[in-house]
Amino acid sequence: IMAGASWSRPIVPGVIGLTLAADLVKPKHTDAFPAVGTELCVREVVSLRAGYCGEKEREYTGFTAGGGVNILGKLSVDYAWTPYGDLGNFHRVSIYFNR
Question: Quick count: other Cβ atoms within 10 Å of Cβ 38?
């Protein structure tokens, strides 16, 4: 079961926007945990992201970070970093094409 909400508002209209999101997650065989995140977007071109996952089953602090770049509305490149305790850091790069 998952329930969540988000809130978005311009900080400087047409220039900088802020999005906050929160979820409450209840996996089938473990306790419920919160997940929260924020995104700061500049001119819908550059995004900076940070979050926290409160899942106790994983051996890491729960903090995550990332960012993205949108190139002319046709190409987006996103990066995410998540620490996984003894397993080290997890780095994810995503590339999106839009026709």
Answer: 16
Tell me how far CA of residue 30 lies from CA of 43, 59, 74, in angstroms: 40, 15, 41
Sequential pLDDT tens for the chain (99 residues): 899 999 999 999 989 999 999 999 998 888 899 999 999 999 989 999 999 988 877 666 789 999 999 998 899 999 999 887 778 889 999 999 988
d(C-alpha 72, C-alpha 14), whole Å: 16
Question: Which pTM does this prediction carry?
Answer: 0.83
d(CA 69, CA 75): 8
Q: Which of 26, 32, 31, 35 is nearest to 1 (CA)?
A: 26
Number of neighbouring beta carbons within 10 Å of residue 18: 14
